[in-house]
């Protein structure tokens, strides 16, 4: 059963092939899947935000699957992930928190296979065309520096006052040309979500 009233779905991919004159082989690729949804609590205070929590669970699966599919990879090939939301002016920041935090992560982890690390997140309030940087981190080990990154999400006609823009980002690699040391993706143990 669909709980989210989705006005628009957008999927964006960015692929970096060259950086500082260096070829990136294979290219680094980041996908962002975005849903523009009606905010069921727009314009009113509610102590209970269960409807948004359920919407978050639904969107974690939908957007995670769309991002993985856009990259053309198997779920286990996903390397980084992140989530973000922009609430329109008739909503409040807690509406974004209700979507992003209690239940969105579990189905996103299924979509990317495992996901032992916390899913980095960002939220803000905005209006039409507001952009947000979706923070990225390695899905299985938060200390992998080569995967600390962000990708911008923006929909030109959203959020309207009574809407929320929800974005999930997935990558099949880290940053182009990483060289600041630290834990390498090849060294991940994946036991605690940190290393």
Question: What would the keywords be for this entry?
Answer:
single chain; 195 residues; alpha+beta; 60s Ribosomal Protein L30, Chain: A; seven-stranded mixed beta sheet; 7 strands; 19% helix
Report on this structure.
Strands 1, 2, 3, 4, 5, 6 and 7 form a seven-stranded mixed beta sheet that branches. The N and C termini lie far apart (37 Å). The protein has one domain: BB2672 (60s Ribosomal Protein L30, Chain: A). A hairpin with a 2-residue loop joins β1 and β2 (22-38). The chain is 19% helix and 34% strand. It has helices at residues 50-71, 93-100, 105-112; strands spanning 6-19, 22-38, 80-87, 121-125, 131-138, 149-154, 163-171. It is globular. By secondary structure, the protein is of the alpha+beta class. This is Peptide synthetase. InterPro entries: AA_synth_put (IPR009569), BB2672 (IPR035936). It holds the Pfam family AA_synth.
Note the beta-strand portion: 25-35%
* Main sheet: strands, sense, barrel: 7 strands, mixed
**Whole-angstrom Rg:** 17 Å
Mean pLDDT: 95
Low-confidence stretches: none
Pfam families: AA_synth
Protein name: Peptide synthetase
Organism: Variovorax paradoxus
């Amino acid at each position: 059963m669909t709980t989210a009233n989705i006005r628009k779905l957008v999927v964006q991919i960015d692929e970096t092939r060259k950086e500082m004159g260096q070829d990136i082989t294979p290219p680094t690729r980041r996908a962002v899947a975005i849903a523009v949804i009606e905010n069921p609590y727009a314009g009113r205070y509610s102590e209970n935000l269960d409807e948004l929590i359920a919407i978050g669970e639904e969107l974690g699966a939908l957007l995670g699957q769309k991002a993985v599919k856009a990259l053309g990879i198997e779920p286990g090939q996903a390397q980084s992930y992140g989530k973000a939301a922009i609430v329109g002016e008739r909503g409040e920041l807690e509406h974004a928190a209700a979507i992003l935090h209690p239940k969105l992560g579990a189905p996103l982890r299924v979509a990317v296979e495992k996901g032992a690390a916390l899913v980095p997140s960002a939220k803000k309030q905005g209006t039409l065309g507001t952009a947000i940087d979706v923070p990225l981190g390695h899905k299985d080990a938060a200390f992998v520096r080569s995967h600390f990154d962000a990708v911008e999400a923006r929909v030109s006609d959203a959020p309207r006052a009574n809407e929320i823009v929800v974005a999930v980002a997935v990558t099949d690699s880290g940053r182009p040309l990483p060289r600041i040391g630290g834990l390498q993706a090849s060294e991940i143990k994946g036991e605690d979500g940190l290393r």
